[in-house]
Amino acid sequence: MNSRTLVAVLAAAAVTVAVSVTYAVRTRYENLGLRQERARHAFDLVQGLFRSPPDIAEVQGEVRALRASVPLWTLAKPMLENQAKVDTSSDEVGRSRRRARVALVEWERVRPQCDPGWTVGGRSALAGLMTEVTGDELVGPVPEFLLACKTVDNPTPVSDVKGLVARLWQGARGSPSPMPDRRLRAVLALAVFDPEGPGWKEVAADPVILDTLLGLDPLLVADWAAGLRPVREWFIPPLREAYRGARGETSASQQAVPSQQAVAAQLLAELTPDDAQTLVTLLTEARVSPQVEAIVARLKRLSGLPRLEAENLLTVATQGPDWPCNVDLPNFVASRERLKKPPSFLLPEADEASRARANAAAALVALGQNGPALAVLRHEPDPLARSHLVHVLGSVVGPVDMVNWLDAEADTSTGRAILLALGETRGKLLEPGERKRIVDRMTRAFTDDDPGVHAAAAWALSRWGVPRPEVSPTPERAASGPDLGNKRRWYVGANGHTMVVLPAPCDPGVVLMGTPARDGDYNAENEPLQLRRIPRRFAIAAHETTIAQFDKFIPGFSQSQAVNATLSRKEQGSARDPQRPAFGFISWVHAAAYCNWLSDQAGIPRSEWCYPDFAENLNELRTRLNPADPKEFQRDLFPSLKRDTSDVTRHLGYRLPTEAEWEYACRAGAVTLRYYGRDDAAVLLSFYANFRLTSPTGLTLPVGTLKPNDFGLFDTLGNVAEWCHEWSDPPPTSDVPFNPEEVSDDRPAPPSGLPGSYLSKDRVVRGASFEDRAVVVRSAYRVPIDGTDSVSGFGPDFGFRVVRTLPK
């Protein structure tokens, strides 16, 4: 071989080697890149599995994607097995561990038949899932738990569903007495494994299971309902009982509270089939706002409300009481009382009808019809439907829409109700521009001529955390009274009292007082049903006299030793808040003396003062606050009050209200037991009155905290019991029939005996207080106070509000 040939051969060999090496290197890197790409793809699929929705079908889809390539599964399997073994209690790690176990079990189920049996990883994963289901391992969110249940819902070489079901039934029935939440977990698992089992009626009616279910976090209710849907027929009846506020034959301690009623509504909304008739029935039975919100939301999810159900809602919403026409309502009620035929709107059944009417009106608003709701929001002699609607309206319509209603509404009483509903929303989650517009509108309403609109706006602004605008005092005169113009019916008077001007009742000038005889359990022997005539206009304080106001009369009174000696430590703490009502150690004489002092502050001449001139004793009253025997001190201090005070309503100075004035002002046009409606079950009472069961501190609240009545008065029910001017008339005997034609004037009659003997007469406090039960917190409730105690009484829950007669 010549040299030229050798060179050619060597060159060819070199090229071949170079090509081979290049190919080999290139192939190596290509395979490495492929493996890396596969690894990344496998990792992405595993992470997608961990991120996938907690539903078995979604997880199966991720497993199918892995199954499409055995090399991918080969890479993904170690990742899943490692994650399935992680022993950490954090929610995020537990979630990934559960998904890894589910994926491994699903892979074992779909492996080729030529590879029989379960791998060690698959057995371990299935065992872990079964441990979660049977309650020996902590479980995360409800959907994750259901995912675990559904994964082991088929017989496998290591899974005996029959044995598993037996264990779960034991756990659901409380054997061996696991924690209530674990019992509920067992119930949820049984809904997957044994929905046709024979024990569901017993388990669904179990008070422990039901209490645990009703105690769920509202944010988790939809998830639990989804799990219980296969067995909903058993849970719907007891949930209906809880929804209505009662639990069948359970004890009083097991009655459903409002929060439980709300959860029951959420569960029923999720569990009830697409049955518009059932949902409408549930809606009309709703008792609290969250119930209405849940059922209305469910109704809106229907493809469309059937015409019949829509008509039924409209009928319920517009079917109010048939008020008598061309008849004075107090006379009508009194005459029916004499005939022992009470009108239907005063019967207990009227409460259910009022609530159903409000709920139906709210549902129609959510469905686009506002007219019925606006009609319900107008004040009526039985305002309970209106009061219920005020409390549920915010769940179906936003503040922006409400303020649009307010701008377009001509009826004053409807405007008051809209403002109260606005206050309930508290202006949450609004854009700054929207919030400013609504606050500006409420601020304009605060200056409205109508005292009811003014008070409703004041309350709404406070609920939104907005300071109330300052209002300058209005000069008061004895002869002409405050200059209010032609329309305005409220003003700020002496010592910061906001005074509400009430006209004389419409012709024939009578007001209804008392309690119907059929309600004997309401202490009716002290509350005879009667008519009283009020032949004058007068102004009454919108709030009870506060500590800050009374301390200007007697500086340091609320902190004096004599006061503190009669109050508990808790009550003393309350006395430090100057905006709470003046209470404790406030006798009738203290209140009367304050009225004279207030008349002096207003510039009203002494000739128009309503009580004897205490000037010679006032300094002694202020300085002698710590006597050894306060009762004897007051009796000695005022021995010479000989002036007849039966003519106080003719004087223009400040005074205490007569009973007729007080009840007329409290009722605010209502003829029901409470000014916002009868409300026998006291469902709404805590929104209007501070009483024993709802007082957050067991004491008084700052004045104006709760809703006002339609006249613009706050706290006429609850907080403190309020002194009235006159002595207590003895109630008529029960065998004397009521005669509505015998209408007496509310002017106090002169007492028999010596002119000063009125001091020994029983006085009256009205309105109940923070110490009283709900049953007595009503417009007609009155408590006669012994004459000696009215002079020197230290009732820790006694307070007062002031009144003055206005010129004609």
Model description:
With 808 residues, this protein is mainly alpha-helical. It contains 32 helices and 12 strands. A 5-stranded antiparallel sheet has the order 1-2-5-12-6. Strands 10-9-7-11 form a 4-stranded mixed sheet. The longest helix has 49 residues, at 3-51.
For the structure shown, list the relevant keywords:
elongated; mainly alpha; 4-stranded mixed sheet; 32 helices; 5-stranded antiparallel sheet
Topology of this protein?
Blueprint (H helix, E strand, L loop, with lengths): L2 H49 L4 H12 L2 H16 L5 H20 L9 H14 L8 H10 L9 H12 L7 H14 L6 H5 L2 H8 L6 H8 L3 H13 L13 H14 L4 H10 L3 H13 L5 H12 L10 H10 L10 H18 L4 H6 L7 H9 L6 H10 L3 H14 L6 H15 L4 H13 L26 E3 L5 E5 L7 E4 L16 E4 L4 E4 L5 H7 L7 H6 L2 H6 L13 H14 L13 H9 L6 H8 L16 E2 L3 H9 L53 E7 L16 E2 L17 E4 L15 E4 L1 H6 L5 E2 L3 E3 L3
Task: Write a brief structural summary.
This protein is mainly alpha-helical and 808 residues long.
Residue stretches low in confidence (pLDDT < 50, at least 5 long) are 25-31, 248-255, 625-630, 635-641, 751-758
Terminal CA distance: 144 Å
Tell me about the biggest sheet? 5 strands, antiparallel
Number of strands: 12
Multimer state: single chain
Integer average pLDDT: 79
Shape: elongated
Number of helices: 32
Strand content bin: 5-15%
Structural class: mainly alpha
Radius of gyration: 38 Å
Spatial strand sequence of the major β-sheet = 1-2-5-12-6
The proportion of residues forming helix, as a percent range, comes to: 40-55%
